[in-house]
Amino acid sequence: MNEALEMFKDLQVLARGVYLQIVFAVKLLDDAIIRSNEPEEVLTFRYEKLGNRFIIPWRKFKGKLRRLVMEKQRFLGISTDCALKDNLCMRCPCCLLFGGTGETSSAKTSYNLLSRVLGETLISLGNMNDVSTYTANAVSEEDLTTGQALMSILKVPVETEFVGVLTLRDPTPELAAIVCDNLNRLTRLGASTREWGKCEIDILGYQLIDRENLSTYALAQLPLDKIKKEVNPLSDLKLLDNVDRCYREVNEQIMRILPAQKAKSK
Ligand SMILES: [Zn+2]
After folding, report:
1. Which of 245, 247, 250, 265 lies deepest, with the highest CB count within 10 Å?
2. 256 CA to middle of ligand 1, Å?
């Protein structure tokens, strides 16, 4: 094993081979909804070794997280027009973290930004043994019939827990603080989230290491208390507590690494 690594003090374009892996649990505080007729945020999957599990595709989770980072930086007056999907500004903390394609962005930059946030499928802990379905249309008050079924809905039961691993490439204290703060701001999953899918995220710990060492696939085979033993407690990371200032810092720093003519055009 290497000596203990540290986060970087500055941003650079080229990767420097340090990975901050943040392990977190997502616990449903209410049922989450899977609708049969929509591209889902929560799905069921059968693994050869793990058996039947609920899963959350990273693409969906990342989309939620990115929107949260964006709304917060808009609140702070940073790149207030930057928006998914075709309106990326290519020069804000959020674009730096989650990446973007210059050509398809409204900024039409000649450069792309590689995502510094890497993820993987979130997997439920323990086997999926309690799945209930119901149909979604209203019951007529007169005769209590439901008439034509519109769609079937699958409920992921309250208290289902998922394990997730978010990996931050070339972490700086500011980027780590932004990521962890927004993990804690994610409070809903699944479909129909105005009514359903309330959840809470508990960051279990981290590893700062020269490779991606942890995976949800391996961790999902362990109970929660054992997962915690695989990581260092988050308090050891000494996260910066002024997250607003972190956004502003990163917003300054990013200008120094963007191609010169692009930064000038601001
Ligand atoms: Zn942006």
Report:
1. 247
2. 15
